[in-house]
Specification:
This protein is α/β, with parallel strands linked by helices. The chain has 9 helices and 8 strands. Helix 2 (71-82) crosses helix 3 (97-113).
C-alpha cells in the first residue's frame, strides 16, 4: 500500500494512484473508524483526485499504539504528517468526529503556515461552537456497543464477534472520549470555504446544527441535506461521491 511521501508514515494511506496535478482529498474517519472506510471513495475519485485517508492510532495495523484521547492532539499529529504536502492543493473531508478533526487541522494550517486548504467538507456533525453534553465514553461496554449499533454504521459481523469487539472497543471508547470532551476555542473563522453535509434523519445532528457551520468561515458556505441517518453516505455512495466531486470543483474554481 502506497502512503504519502514516506513509507514509515502511518498516518496517511493512499489506496489508488491519482492523477498528477489533481488536488489531494484528505479523508478523516468517524469515531471507531479507520482509513479503510474511505476505500470506496478513493476508488470512485481516482480519476479526479488523489485521495489520502487518515489512519488514527489504536486500530487495524496501528492497534498496538495507544489511541489518542483529545482532538487537539489528533489535529497536531495529522498536521505534522501533512507537512510534506502542504504546498499542494488540499481538500479535507471529515465525517462525524472526523469533521471536527479536519476543521481543527485546517485551523492549525492557517495559524502556523499562513496557508489554507482549498476547502473542507464536514459531514454528520454539528458546528463546533454548538455544544451538547454527551457521555457515551463513560458507559460500560454493552452501553457503548448499543450506541454504535443504533447509528447503523458498523458491520453487524464486527458487533457480533466477541474477539473483534475486544480489539476495537478501546479505540472506539477513546475516540468517543476525544469528541465528547472537545470544546471549541473561539478564534478567527477559516479563510477557506466550508461545505456541510447531513442526513435528514440523523439522530446526532439537526439540519440547523449543520447549517451553523457557516459561522466558521469567512469564505463561501454550502449545505447539502441527504436522505438518511448518521451514516447516510454508506447508503447513498453515488450521491455522496457526486457531491464531493462537485464541491472539489467549486473549491478549485474559487481560487483567485
Amino acid at each position: 500500500m502506497d502512503q504519502c511521501g514516506r513509507k514509515d508514515d502511518l498516518w496517511l494511506r493512499r489506496f489508488h494512484q491519482g492523477v498528477d496535478g489533481d488536488p489531494l482529498l484528505v479523508c478523516f474517519p468517524h469515531a471507531g473508524g479507520s482509513a479503510a472506510y474511505f476505500f470506496p471513495v478513493s476508488a470512485a475519485l481516482s480519476g479526479s483526485a488523489n485521495v489520502l485517508a487518515v489512519q488514527y492510532p489504536g486500530r487495524q495495523d496501528r492497534r498496538r499504539e495507544p489511541p489518542v484521547d483529545t482532538i487537539d492532539e489528533l489535529a497536531a499529529a495529522v498536521f505534522a504528517a501533512l507537512r510534506g504536502v502542504l504546498d499542494r492543493p488540499l481538500v479535507f473531508f471529515g465525517h462525524s468526529m472526523g469533521a471536527v478533526t479536519c476543521y481543527e487541522v485546517a485551523r492549525v494550517i492557517e495559524r502556523e503556515t499562513g496557508g489554507s486548504p482549498l476547502g473542507i467538507i464536514v459531514s454528520g456533525r454539528r458546528a463546533p461552537s454548538l455544544h451538547r453534553t454527551e457521555t457515551v465514553h463513560t458507559r460500560d461496554d454493552q452501553g457503548l456497543i448499543a450506541e454504535v449499533r443504533s447509528l447503523e454504521g458498523t458491520d453487524a459481523g464486527v458487533l457480533g464477534d466477541e474477539e473483534l469487539l475486544r480489539m476495537v472497543l478501546p479505540a472506539l471508547r477513546t475516540d468517543y472520549k476525544a469528541i465528547e470532551t472537545y470544546r471549541h476555542r473561539p478564534g478567527p473563522p477559516l479563510r477557506c470555504p466550508i461545505a456541510a453535509y447531513v442526513g435528514d434523519s440523523d439522530p446526532k445532528v439537526a439540519v440547523a446544527e449543520a447549517a451553523a457551520w457557516r459561522d466558521h468561515t469567512s469564505a463561501s458556505f454550502g449545505l447539502r441535506v441527504f436522505a438518511g441517518g448518521h451514516f447516510y453516505l454508506g447508503d447513498r455512495p453515488a450521491e455522496t461521491i457526486k457531491a464531493v466531486s462537485a464541491d472539489i470543483l467549486a473549491f478549485r474554481a474559487a481560487v483567485p
